[in-house]
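Quick one, T. Sequence first:
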Amino acid sequence: MGSLENARKTADRLAPAFAELAKGAPTPLEIDVVAHSMGCRLSLELIKLLVAVPNVQLTHVVLMAGAVPTFMLEPAPDNQRLRQAYDAMLGGGRGLAKSLYSPADAVLTFAFPIGQPLASG
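Structure tokens:
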């Protein structure tokens, strides 16, 4: 359960590093993301923060067995703005995104949904 908060804190630390790299660059900083499990949540939390960073372009996102409830990736906005940020960074045909998962994954299907509401924040 503490992993969710760690993902948010890590994103909070990474976003300024990407902003610094992008600052003053002659072309947008292009970022490709490939993530697995809790790294998917970290990536989405980071994307949420990078929406507000100028000169950053997310070009590709591949999430595998993401520790993210599927409703947070559905078109309807979720309360944590993960899908909205995902759409904003990849919108307009500028990028490519894939989320790979299996409904047969017992941890993601059963354990993660139970732990998600118990996590802080």
